[in-house]
Amino acid sequence: MTLPILILALIMALALAYYEFSRRSEANKQQDLHRRILGPSSATEAEARLPGDIRQPQASRPTPEFLRPITQWLAQAGLEIRPEQFLGLTLLGGLAGVLLTALRLHLGIVCLYGAALGALPTVYVLIQRKRRLATFSQQLPYVADFLRSTLRAGHPLARGLQMATENSPEPMATELRLTLEQMRYGASLPDAMETMFKRVPEESLGFFVAAVRVQSHVGSSLAEILDRVAEAIRARQRLQQQIKALTAQARMSGLMVGAMPFLLLMLFTLIRPDYTGVLFYDATGNKLLEAAITMDLIALFVINRMVKV
Description:
Blueprint: H1 2-22, H2 26-38, H3 43-49, H4 68-76, H5 83-101, H6 107-152, H7 157-167, H8 172-184, H9 189-199, H10 203-218, H11 222-246, H12 248-271, H13 273-281, H14 283-307
Helix pairs in contact: 1-5, 2-8, 4-6, 5-6, 6-7, 6-11, 7-8, 8-9, 9-10, 10-11, 12-13, 12-14, 13-14
């Protein structure tokens, strides 16, 4: 009777935590927006540069220095949560994994399950970050073409950025909006673009930022530079897609080889619990299971590095 009650309590705690983490007021979102615009400056400098009506209240504490990389990492994934909330969710997931398995399994396996559940938020953020950066990279050539067209039509680059912000999908629209907001606070266009590159560390964006900075120093035709940059980005993306297609079979084989032991263990545990019970309830079986999981994870890592170009 104790285990179902414990599971229900943990599920309710996770649900309440998710609700609390996802509940964000517009004021907090505005503060986070300006925090991202101002970059990694100190809280005092940030408060001095913001207008009085949007400054953070005195009770709000600045983000600690050691949490700022996590803040930037979460922002790159497009997640509207604070680093403290992310760390709390990770610890809550690890505690849930430990408590759910502590009554049935060996201590080593319990720690493994706890670490696995605790790593789920990190895995989710990694996936979201990779997807968001990939989407941004795919949208960048079209934005470069749009800016080139506005420049040839006689509009300044700042006006072209504003028009691109109004017509671009996410996440490009958000990043361009942040760039325009930073320019409104006095930053030059190359510096604002450089800050955007720090927020979105995509190599394709680096070409675009370099083109803007070269044009600001040399004064050449930015429209022609953007045309060449867009073509170079598209050529690079075509090459990446070709490499991804050529390595698809090897990546799928590695995934199947890595997932097969876990699937077989799960299947045999459901069909013949007495057959796999020795792995969970015997000391030697626990060591064999830990060694097998470790070697399987190492094999997955090696295969992933082999097919990565």
